[in-house]
UniProtKB/TrEMBL annotation:
Pfam family of the protein (one): SLT_4
All copies of domain Transglycosylase SLT, residue ranges: 6-188
Descriptive protein name: Transglycosylase SLT domain-containing protein
Higher taxonomy: Bacteria, Pseudomonadati, Pseudomonadota, Gammaproteobacteria, Salinisphaerales
Tagged with keyword Chaperone: no
Keywords: Signal
UniProt xrefs under InterPro entries: Lysozyme-like_dom_sf (IPR023346), SLT_4 (IPR045795)
Length: 202
């Protein structure tokens, strides 16, 4: 029994490290007030990659609803038994294993974790920058950036979204949310900047 508890304890502790989603994901100011450090993480990604904070946050919302351990559903063995996942997507950004590996190599971030919000924000910033470099998509164009994020740069270049009206509708929602987040952020950015640097003596 004692051995079982010793084996189980690290799993419980690890599960406890996953941060719960924000209570009001539709309001960016509320998100950043609730989740200490998230604003600094998103701002750092913006400064490093040039991806606007509202674009980052709208993509993350669409992909995971800010759930750090989000994962796609499992296939069913014999239509009943949960089996393998339908893809390797995981975490806040729903990045695939292969894409996450490319990010870690290219960004020089070998210990990045998909269930860490700061790492996920940096990944999204990196991907937005890649789509800008490869496809010429403006980093502020949340609609086209999401299409490239979902399809990959190759799929976007091939125009695969043209035959997927549901995906274009989703990208429109991402763009609309990004615009809303941008307006909200403009009303609280000064407050967040002051709050993020409370430890300075002046």
């Amino acid at each position: 029994m004692r051995a079982f508890v010793l084996v189980l304890l690290p799993c419980v502790l690890l599960a406890g490290c996953i941060t719960a989603p924000p209570n009001n994901p539709s309001n960016l100011c509320s998100i950043f007030r609730e989740k200490g450090g998230w604003y600094d993480d998103a701002r750092d990604a913006q400064q490093r990659w040039g991806a606007p904070i509202p674009v980052q946050m709208s993509i993350i919302y669409q992909e995971s609803q800010f759930k750090g351990d989000a994962a796609p559903p499992r296939n069913k063995l014999f239509w009943v038994i949960p089996w393998t996942r339908i893809s390797s997507a995981y975490g806040y950004s729903q990045a695939l294993d292969s894409t996450w590996g490319a990010y870690k190599d290219d960004a020089g971030h070998p210990f990045a974790d998909r269930d860490d919000f700061g790492d996920a924000a940096d990944f999204v910033g990196w991907y937005v920058d890649q789509s800008h470099r490869i496809l010429g998509i403006s980093k502020a164009d949340a609609y086209s950036q999401y299409l490239a994020y979902y399809l990959g740069q190759g799929g976007y270049r091939q125009g695969l979204y043209r035959s997927k009206p549901w995906l274009r509708r989703t990208a429109s929602r991402v763009a609309s949310r990004s615009n809303t987040y941008d307006a909200q952020l403009s009303s609280c950015r000064a407050e967040l900047e002051r709050g993020g640097h409370w430890w300075w003596p002046f």
